[in-house]
Amino acid sequence: MIVANRYAKSLMDLAVESKQLEVVRADMQSIEQVCKENREFELFLNSPVIKTDKKLVVMNEIFKGKISDLTLSFLNLITSKHRESLVGHIAAAFDDQYKTNKNIFTAVVTSAKGLDAATKQKVKDLVKSQMNGEVELIEKIDANTIGGFILRIGDKQLDKTVARQLSNLKKELLNKELN
Question: What is the pTM of this model?
Fold first, then answer.
């Protein structure tokens, strides 16, 4: 979303300029989590019936003392410009821009039961050796993954599941039969 990216970029520039980048990132992660976990909050932000001054009061009550003054001022600015419905998108875009700025790659590992600490570290080290930067590892559990794992970094995917190996073997056998 272009508008969300522009607001996120503005906040990023402001945070860097005021030397509060890490604080603002933590604030934006909290805000994004609130938006994701509270449907009522999203509905409140998107409501055309609720007036801007009421939204400002509620936003200040929810976040005052929990986030930095810089981030709260930014939320107030967005709300006063009637862009409060973009808060969740702006928070996500800010995190993406932060990761790009800090050269952090997100690797998503999907497995049937989850990985132990040693395996997680091996995956992180493997990804880090292939990428030039830091690695943020997100673990997802999917019972449909029959053994093995799927590693996804950006638009690249490495599928080392038993199901994929069986599928590849089946294709190979069928190709041999046809030839």
Answer: 0.76
